[in-house]
Amino acid sequence: MPQLFDDTPPECPECRERTATPIIYGDPSSEMVQASRLGDIVLGGVAAEGDMPAWLCSCGTRYED
Ligand SMILES: [Zn+2]
Q1: Structure pTM?
Q2: How far is the centre of ligand 1, averaged over its atoms, from the C-alpha of 17 (Å)?
Q3: Cα of 49 to ligand 1 centre, how many Å?
Q4: How far apart are CA 10 and CA 12, in angstroms?
Q5: In angstroms, what is the span from residue 4 Cα to ligand 1's centroid?
Q6: Which of 1, 17, 20, 46 has its C-alpha lying 20 to 30 A from 53's C-alpha?
Q7: What is the pairing mode between strands 62-63 and 42-45?
Q8: Which parts of 1-65 fold into alpha helices (H)?
Q9: Helix (H, G, I), strand (E, B) or coil at 48
Q10: CA 40 to ligand 1 centroid distance, Å
Q11: Rounded distance from Cα 14 to ligand 1 centre (Å)
Q12: Is 49 exposed, middle or buried (0-12, 13-18, 19+ CB in 10 A)?
């Protein structure tokens, strides 16, 4: 299966790691559900306006680009 989400994450503001998982908002496609099961993405659901962090770090921090 090709890597759908291969962007290098920006640095985490807490721990400086670049291993964060992208958070995808909105109604997930079947590919997105599959990717979330594989741990390639996190499904964020429908986010409140103005509260849509793009990345979830392994340390638990959610942050923007
Ligand atoms: Zn972190």
Answers
A1: 0.80
A2: 6
A3: 24
A4: 6
A5: 22
A6: 1
A7: unpaired
A8: 30-38
A9: coil
A10: 16
A11: 5
A12: exposed
